[in-house]
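INPUT
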Amino acid sequence: MELFANLAHGFAVAFSPINLLMCLIGALVGTLVGVLPGIGTIATVAMLLPITFGLPPVGALIMLAGIYYGAQYGGSTTSILVNIPGEATSVVTALDGHQMAKQGRAGPALAIAAIGSFFAGCVATVLIAVLGAPLTKLALAFGPAEYFSLMVLGLIFAVVLAKGSVLKAIAMIVFGLLLSMVGSDIETGASRMAFNIPELADGLGFATVAMGVFGFAEIIRNLDHGAEMDRNLVQQKITGLMPTRKDLVDSTPAILRGTVLGSILGILPGGGAVIASFAAYTLEKKLAKDPSRFGRGAIEGVASPESANNAAAQTSFIPLLTLGIPPNAVMALMVGAMTIHGIVPGPQVMQKQPDLVWGMIASMWIGNLMLIIINLPLVGIWVRLLRVPYRLMFPSIVVFCAIGIYSVNNAPVDVVLAGAFGLVGYWLIKHDFEPAPLLLGMVLGPLMEENLRRALLISRGDWSVFLSRPLSAVLLAIAAGLLVLAVLPTLRAKRDEVFVESEG
Amino acid sequence: MSDTPSEAPVKSILPKWVRGPQDFVGGLAMVAVALFALWASSDLQGMHGFSFGAGTAPRMFAVLLLLLGGAVALMGVLKDGPHIAAYSWRGPLFVSAAIVFFALAIRPLGLVVSAFAAFLIAAMGSHETRWIEAIIVGACLTLGCALLFPYVLGLPMPMFPRFLIQ
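OUTPUT
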């Protein structure tokens, strides 16, 4: 019954006024960026990282978590009403959701999306609470060799589940690892690749790189397309939010399936919420008696991916909280937020900082409750926000980011560095390199080096330690197997098919 | 979202045997980064006995990136791939200019001046900018940030130009 005691403790923490406020702010900001196309979750969390500096750590993480799952709610609104996904995770929702809106059923589509998200959010919250403690115990049994292998597996998973070329994604990871080497060596203190620039002595700031590669690069990329985005809103008033009885009957199994699929895919490192929504949509289409209904306003096509993306957004906290390993780029930013506050992510966090972990878990449930209120009755306000033109939004984001980065260390050099990484990010996008694996590599770099060094020191320089320790060998074998599968032509075709689905 | 605004003119300076210029150039750039990292970390100590030196891991990752970059470039030779996408200059130029201006101006000129000016410089990055509207929004944003960062969040930073305060 430790679980209930923990949860009760968590709720006590989460219900403190400051944390409730943080949760509300996170949910509001998340909905906002979810609704607005052109600002991604990763960019937003990166943007707000510096701001959390002045907040207590629990509140800061509650807020950042709120942004992530809040964006999953908000993204569906834009998808359904405007046919432009507000978030990458809502791409598939637009397929059937917008058709429903065109048929005058925008209300039920929005309601089912929110109900599905809420249900999935509740299940995922319980799952985190249940799985948290046992996984942490498992993690405590890990030695450096196992940790290293686990991180290799995590990175490989991220590559296999991501979109695009496997080779290029691995190259991005290694690029990230290399960037993480800049600064001082942890053991000897020697300055590495810092070129005697004092601001680099502590390494490249994580927030700086993230803000550049995701924030600035995204803005520059969006400007390519012309600032004016095509926004043909569904103009008629949204009437009747309540779904019919038939809608509920049709969507209940879809919500359940989406939740299960999303929860599983969220725990696995890699795509997280994005891949979950794609996979859920594909699954519904395969299972449907009449697949031709999909793309013409099938309510299952809204219910399942929306449940899946929200479940995945939340279960992706499990590897972060228990193992200290971020499974995707947003979680990598959460690691950044934790380190800003002097918390080293890992299995020990759960024991040393129960307030933080359980407070965050409890806040997720509260946040989901807030979100359903924020999203359903207030949907009109969010729709009005869609009329803010990008030509005014982008300079605001640039200035806001610049001030934010400057405020982390009061260092103008950081701002210039972020700008430079913005150009690097733009170049990477132009050459079809995904920036997310780079961020993962950068976060895991120091951890990997440390564990690799320690493992080899313990084994007296014997590299076979990674294969002779059974747990480590199993992890590496899975990683190798995945990699082989990923480059096999048949599976590649299948994988690409899942992603192509949306673009049709 | 790899769709590009306009197809690049098929006027490549690359030799004919490069069938996927996007991958080819991308891979070569990674190789260049790796070589640079190898050079930059060449002064660091390597393995001593069976324990890592400061330079071991950086060089290890650099060699790995070298191989991967080479492989990506090789794919660009062996497989047909997309051309290098067209770059636009306006967005990158003005957004970078705004960032650099902000970095240079924040200490001597303070938040109010540098944020407002950076907003207007960034706004030049789009040809759709309407100036009256931009000035109003820029002023509001500046005011908002001037209240948010130092007062609400308690992050100290200079507000006004140094020569005005003294």
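end of record. Chain A has a mean pLDDT of 82.
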